[in-house]
């Protein structure tokens, strides 16, 4: 299988270089919209080569694009209409936001040791120094990671280049797991994990919820004002809240991975499949914001990609009745769980435990069943 990472490089452009990139980005956006109209007029054309034959000459002559830029424009538009066809949402695609994709070794290269990048413009290649976070440096300097495409992204003060790198790794083998880790995700506890020895890890979320509440109060105050400066602050506030939750989810994922590695030499992580969970759950009006704004999907994505990097397989199991089923006797009943006090007591055998920990144990046990089935199938 293939691991893919996206590295964000902050470009330190001069005024002349910024002007050249501005012009290139504008021409590329206009070329995208022109190509989109041609593709739409031809029935939502999604075949790259056919679309390229129709527009390539005009992209070079009328918009001044270099050869590889013109090819990338055709590729971006073709993939957009291919996606529209598969989703059965065919309409004219409009590219209002800037989107300029580069291909490695064709119209951009990275000099990792010098921390400079060479990127193409309408006129010529320019060499730009960049800043990068220390956590990204190993990807840039290692020979194991190969550079892929890159996207030029405008920022408030200039530009950044989002570079993809990839590396081939072996697929984790589920049948070789010696530890099954069940992980229950929630709001009062962002994650509760348990292993085969019933050891548990809790990541509390009460302080996170309190900080999100402060964001809500700030947002309401700014929305009441409605001034232009208030709207600017609202945008900044939204960015801060998103970055805050992303950072928290990275912390939670790191703790889950650490707990899994401490539980066995070849652990396996089991998560609930929470796809469409908000569509199938009744939530009180006062709790809707918290439920629908909570980044459950992002946390799963981060856990998965960190687990794959460590060679840890991740399973998804059904979330049905995981907090209502007794992990000791198997009795399932809604009244087993006291949501308000976060307690679980089985009405049949009177087994007592924290309700989130019960959920984690049931998730773990469902993962064990899947591993057992795989062992039988591979025998």
UniProtKB/TrEMBL annotation:
GO-annotated biological processes: DNA recombination; transposition
DNA-binding is among the record's keywords: yes
Coiled-coil blocks: none
One annotated GO molecular function: DNA binding
Pfam families tied to this protein: Cas12f1-like_TNB, OrfB_IS605
Probable transposase IS891/IS1136/IS1341 domain mapped to chain residues: 172-262
InterPro entries on file: Cas12f1-like_TNB, RNA-guided_DNA_endo/Transpos, Transposase
All copies of domain Cas12f1-like TNB, residue ranges: 296-363
Key word Amino-acid biosynthesis present: no
Keywords, sorted A to Z: DNA recombination, DNA-binding, Transposition
Family: In the N-terminal section; belongs to the transposase 2 family. In the C-terminal section; belongs to the transposase 35 family.
Annotated protein name in UniProt: Transposase
Species this protein is from: Alicyclobacillus mengziensis
């Amino acid at each position: 299988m293939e691991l893919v990472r996206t590295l964000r490089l902050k470009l330190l452009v001069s005024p002349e270089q910024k002007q050249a990139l501005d012009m290139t980005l504008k021409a590329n956006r206009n070329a995208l919209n022109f190509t989109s109209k041609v593709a739409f007029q031809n029935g939502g054309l999604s075949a790259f080569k056919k679309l390229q034959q129709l527009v390539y000459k005009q992209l070079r002559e009328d918009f001044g694009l270099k050869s590889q830029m013109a090819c990338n424009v055709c590729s971006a538009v073709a993939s957009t209409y291919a996606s529209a066809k598969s989703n059965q949402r065919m309409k004219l695609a409009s590219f209002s936001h800037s989107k300029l994709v580069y291909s490695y070794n064709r119209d951009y290269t990275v000099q990792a040791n010098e921390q400079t990048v060479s990127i193409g413009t309408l006129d010529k290649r320019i060499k730009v120094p960049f800043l990068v976070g220390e956590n990204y440096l190993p990807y840039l300097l290692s020979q194991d990671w190969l550079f892929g495409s890159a996207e030029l992204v405008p920022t408030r003060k200039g530009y950044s280049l989002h570079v993809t790198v990839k590396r081939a790794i072996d697929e984790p083998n589920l049948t070789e797991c010696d530890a099954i880790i069940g992980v229950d995700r929630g709001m009062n506890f962002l994650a509760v994990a348990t292993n085969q020895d019933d050891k548990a890890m809790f990541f509390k979320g009460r302080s996170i919820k309190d900080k999100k509440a402060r964001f809500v109060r700030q947002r309401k105050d700014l929305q009441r004002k409605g001034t232009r400066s208030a709207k600017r602050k609202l945008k900044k506030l939204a960015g801060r809240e998103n970055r805050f939750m992303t950072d928290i989810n990275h912390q939670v994922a790191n703790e889950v991975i650490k707990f899994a590695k401490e539980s066995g030499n070849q652990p396996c992580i089991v998560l609930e499949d929470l796809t469409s969970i908000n569509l199938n759950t009744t939530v009180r009006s006062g709790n809707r914001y918290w439920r629908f704004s909570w980044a459950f999907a992002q946390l799963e994505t981060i856990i998965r990609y960190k687990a794959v990097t460590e060679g840890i397989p991740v399973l998804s199991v059904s979330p049905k009745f995981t907090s209502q089923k007794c992990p000791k006797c198997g009795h399932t009943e809604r009244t087993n769980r006291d949501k308000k006090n976060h307690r679980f007591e089985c009405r049949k055998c009177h087994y007592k435990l924290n309700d989130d920990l019960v959920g984690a144990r049931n998730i773990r046990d469902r993962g064990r069943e899947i591993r057992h089935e795989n062992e039988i199938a591979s025998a």
